[in-house]
Amino acid sequence: MKIACIQMDISLCSKEKNLERALSLAGEAVSKDAEMIVFPEVFSTGFCYDRIGEVAETVSGPTLEALLAFSKEHDCILAGSIIEKIEREEKEPGLIEREEGRKEKQVPSQYNLGFCIESGKLAGTHRKTQLYGPEKEHFAPGDRIAPIRLEKHGLTIGLIVCNELRYPEVARKLALEGADILVSSAEIPDFFGYPWRIISLARALENQLPHVACTRVGKDLYSTYPGGSFIADARGRMLAEAGKEECVLVGEIDLEKAKETRETTSIFGDLRPELY
Prior knowledge:
alpha/beta, Nitrilase/N-carbamoyl-D-aminoacid amidohydrolase, six-stranded mixed beta sheet, about 25% strand
């Protein structure tokens, strides 16, 4: 299966510009026979905190609608993350949450929403559970970790959003619940580029799963972003790796070989959860 990572620059808060660029690069990916295309974290807006209420969208908003149309036209899988607006009936924006022994706090009105689209249909979503730094002030944390099951190739995806990679438990839970491949959508700043590479490869190796690790390039008000997206196999070996420039990174994953790797090793059979 050919998979592409869209390692793109992101213009802060410029939704239409970013979406247009992302779809243009996705078109390049499908021209190279990519069946799955992965975008960076919050690729359509960046972390647009100053205008977050304005740029946030529901799952029926224009960004996902455009991605659904592209996916249907090209019969492909798309994954990434956007800023999701919380529906009023789900959680009233501005609600004050009271926790025992803690001060009252305002619940943010947005989620960092991971999505997976297959052939024009929304196959599943994942709300980022492990928020980092200022994200905690602007996003509500997700409360569920589960793989997303697709029809193509009978594939099950373990979707991870950026900082969740720092928690081995997230990838392990996805693996134990049947993920065939890890797909991470990230926005990695320069100071964390090297550690991100190490932990991303570790998540592949320790779970015997291929990993598509997609991040961004460029710079914004907060940081510079060195790129380095990659696609690795179930043994943690590099199949394709990007540099520091905007690009469409394409790699081919042998899903049968990945399955064979899991079946011929004893990592999961030898787990001793009673000890940990």
